[in-house]
């Protein structure tokens, strides 16, 4: 506790907002923002118009559009993280769950040599000064398919729900122990839309409360994959009529 208090003092001296996260692969913010990015990239791989994916992120309230953010982080970074995470999971006797975004990232790097902004080419084109020049036309040529459109709300909520559901898992795993830390960290740390009040408050405030969120998550899971299956903690709280709160 003394070490934690000293850390809090230091963080406040540099005018930052501290949160407490227990040791785990990816910790909180890096792990959760990866789900946001993966959903956007996966939608491109499904044949959805890339400009629509970007617009969905913007209208959901994200400060950075998902494909532009991927370019800023570089496409090679999540691939390195994925390979290390996969190795760790398999060494521990687990089974790696492949995300549909992985194939898109691999093609972008290996087939098209577009590793992100630092490499001068990614989901976007860049001019000689490094300024973003627009979405790469090759995305439409190589990925976009007619008839692949999905409801705009689904596009938005796939990104929002992917982050919210994994945050609940972090509570289950004990990586996060405070609802307030989750909400604050999600907004200030990874740009979760501010209108939600934070990633767990988004669940609390969803239409129909936690039961409504669980029902919608199951609907998304049926349409887009098991990664949207609500965690046991979320289902339990919904059944008990509870919300995510630090109040005792």
Topology, element by element:
Layout: H1 2-13, H2 29-45, H3 50-60, H4 66-73, H5 76-91, H6 101-111, E1 124-126, E2 132-135, H7 138-142, H8 152-173, H9 179-190, H10 199-204, H11 209-224, H12 232-240
Antiparallel strand pairs: 1-2
Helix pairs in contact: 2-4, 2-6, 2-8, 2-9, 3-8, 11-12
Summary keywords:
globular; mainly alpha
Protein architecture, described:
- By secondary structure, this protein is an all-alpha fold.
- The chain is built from twelve helices and two strands.
- A two-stranded antiparallel sheet has the order 1-2.
- Helix 3 crosses helix 8.
- The chain is globular.
- The two termini are 21 Å apart.
- The mean pLDDT is 91.
Quick gist of this model?
It contains 12 helices and 2 strands; from the N terminus they run H-H-H-H-H-H-E-E-H-H-H-H-H-H. The chain is mostly helical. Helix 2 (29-45) packs across helix 9 and helix 3 (50-60) packs across helix 8.
Radius of gyration: 19 Å
Number of strands: 2
Which overall shape is indicated by the principal axes computed on the Cα atoms? globular
Decide which structural class fits the backbone.
mainly alpha
User: Low-confidence parts lasting 5 or more residues at pLDDT below 50?
Assistant: none
In DSSP terms, counting alpha (H) and pi (I) runs of 4 or more, how many helices? Answer: 12
Helical residue percent?
55-70%
The secondary-structure element order is HHHHHHEEHHHHHH
- Terminal CA distance: 21 Å
* Adjacency order of strands in the biggest sheet: 1-2
Strand content: under 5%
